[in-house]
Amino acid sequence: MANSTTIEVRNLSKSFGPVRAVDDLSFTVEPGEVTGFLGPNGAGKTTTLRALLGLVEPSYGSATFGGVSYRQLKHPLETVGTALEASSFHPGRSGLAHLNVYATAAAIPKSRVQAVLTQVGMSQFADRRVGGHSLGMRQRLGLAFALLGDPGVLVLDEPVNGLDPEGISWMRTLLRNLASEGRTILVSSHLLSEVQQSVDRVVIIAKGQMVYQGGLSGLVQRSRVEVESADQSGLAKALQNAGGEVEQGTSSLSVSGLDAEQVGKIALESGIALRKLHTEQTGLESAFLDLVGNGEQK
Questions:
Q1: Which of 98, 161, 217, 249 sits 20 to 30 Å CA-CA off 290?
Q2: What is the dotted CATH code of the domain comprising 7-219?
Q3: Rounded distance, CA 213 to CA 36, Å?
Q4: 154 Cα distance to chain centroid
Q5: Is the pTM of the predicted complex or chain greater than 0.90?
Q6: Is the pLDDT confidence value at 298 over 50?
């Protein structure tokens, strides 16, 4: 295995005409961890990955591997394994033929081809034309390509898309095992539920901007305070002035950014009597939707 390297995205921005797909995005992905790169469809994930892999030129900022851009890597396949599109293989050729071509071009031993096909459970289908593969089989073949150079870094886009439950479980185990070997792994997905059992940390973006970076426990700990008073508008204004985010419900206010003790103190100082005050823990999926919104972004 090649040495693992930290992925570094620094103030990355990318515009396509008037559309800002990625907007001043910064994050890091460390070795030995599986990091989920999350956001709704159209949030800027694919553009970020394409910039990281030298497929598009950033408008501003950088995306590198230990400070080195993908285009400047001396041995790219042996440094970074990528799987961005499950359908990128020619349908008329076999998976074995595809991998042999890549191995020859990168001076990788042919024995490595057989090893990765076995590793992803595709050795028995090696001579079958890719056009006859299911989406799940193409995902496995894409992963075989990513692993071909035994790289220290893996960048995978929607790797469980098309896999059945058994395949998803297999993918989770594989990613965990690869990370335990000290590899740096970045997994893109538009659904938290797809990756939450296999990732150590998450980077969540929406509309091209960072909305959260950290462990899953940090999402669980995001909470809302439900509060009700006789003067809802006055309380809402006082809470907003104190830096809280307030949403008006049917009969109560939902507050984030302040804990229950702070809400109670602000109400007391404002001379507003409370009828109800309690904290509601937010589940992972609810927290994710709170951060990114419920709709796709274009």
A1: 161
A2: 3.40.50.300
A3: 10
A4: 13
A5: no
A6: no
Residues carrying CATH 3.30.70.100, the chain = 223-281
Residue range(s) in the chain whose domain bears CATH number 3.40.50.300: 7-219
Nearest CA among 14, 49, 57, 55 for reference residue 208: 14
* Residue with token string 């909305």: 211
Domain 223-281 in CATH 3.90.170.10? The answer is: no
Confidence of residue 221 (pLDDT cuts 50, 70, 90): low
According to DSSP, the β-strands at 80-83 and 153-157 are: parallel
